[in-house]
Amino acid sequence: MDGDSAPLAAIHAATQAAGAVLLVDDAHGVGVVGDEGRGSCAAQAVRPELLVVTFGKAFGVSGAAVLCDEAMADYLLQFARPSDLQHRDAARPGGGAERCPGDHSQR
User: Where is this region: Disordered (predicted)?
Assistant: First the structure.
């Protein structure tokens, strides 16, 4: 961990050109990097299709969230295996994929 950041804008442009989606796991950026700790994507003005944020690093609690649009959330809820969405030792099956009310878009 030496503080390097990926060139997210260039990577996002490449994924869009290829018709792919960008998934960013910002475990070490959220809570630390950018204005108000909004993370690496916000600091570089990049809005990936999937953004994984973990709460164990900067926030000191367990858990994580996948931030995405509603269509992607519906797809994940319908087709992802529960083991893909949660830790295998989680307390209850399916607990990793729940819909949260409200606007969770990056601003």
Answer: 87-107
What sign results for the dihedral spanned by CA atoms 19, 74, 47, 58?
negative
Domain range summary for the chain, segments of one domain joined by +? 21-85
Structure tokens at 66: 């996948």
Count the neighbouring beta carbons within 10 Å of the beta carbon of residue 24: 23
4-48 pLDDT tens trace: 889 999 999 999 999 999 999 998 888 889 898 899 999 999 999
Enter the pTM of the model. Answer: 0.70
DSSP class per residue in the chain: -------HHHHHHHHHHTT---EEE-TTTTTTSSGGG--HHHHTT---SEEEEESSSSS-SS-EEEEE-HHHHHHHHHHS-HHHHS-TT-SSTTTT-----S-----
Return d(Cα 54, Cα 74) in angstroms, integer: 21
